[in-house]
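Appendix B. One record, verbatim.
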Amino acid sequence: QVPVSEDVGNLSQTFFTADGKHLVVVILKTLAIFSTKTWELVSQPVAFDSTYIVAREIPGQRKLLIRKSGPGKSGKDSTNPLVVVSLDGGKLSEVGLSNVGDVSGAEYSENGRFLALSRKGGGLDLHHGHSMEPYLKLFSAKELFSLMSFSSSERYLALASQDNTIRILDMDNSGVEIHRFLVNNEINFLKFIPGRDDRLYIGDKTGVANLYALKTGFIKESIAESGEFRQGAVDEWAYFASPNHQWLVASRLDGFSYLADLNNDQIKTKFNQLGQAKQVSWSADSSKAVLSDESGKIDVLSVDDGKLIEISGKWIHVSLSN
């Protein structure tokens, strides 16, 4: 246990690095990095001079990109909001880019080919992820982007703007916009489904989830449930794709979940858990999914009939054999 002198809130992150060697924990503006070999801190937790931070792993470089957001002790926003942190020793360094004082968002593509930077005054800059050389500068100052997501192949970039517009850019064709559409509410989750460049998953702050099929005229399947829903939280939705990339389990923060058929763009079944699914293990043939929620309860979901088998307890890990 490591005490952190921060108020616990929604602006937090916990994730393992791609190689599994480090656990990254963010609570508001404080960063802690653990070695998964020893479970010891690689360095003392770092509290940045900002309201909160967002951490992203830099693919293939054993580093984190930290974006500072909001005013620090001086009451002013940072003039250099981007910082690089070494995973091995926690050393801080500059990002290697000039004119980043107004950067509001940063996103790497999966293999580090591209780095996308959105700006507070509007506009989007794209850089080569390894050399940091400029690649493209897109849109005018009127374009204010809130979220960005690259597809697994790094070919497509999805952008969500503050006017609830979604744009899809083709990075292999000089960033040409190939799709544009509007959603009804403020967007707080935007991700391409892993391994599926033609499926984009969107969540909004009312708790509605949208699954879009890019190649079939954006046929949309929406999920909305009545009842109380806490708005404004970060990353409300978690999603888990099956090994054959046909099925998707999506789980909302309050435990509402669904199983989607990605090939036919249909929601097959809906169900409720006691909290958001933290772990989903799929069978090798993608016929079953085992879900573990925040309470420790396990649900076994059958894809064929959508039925659930509940296993009560305080389980902390679950995995299906081949």
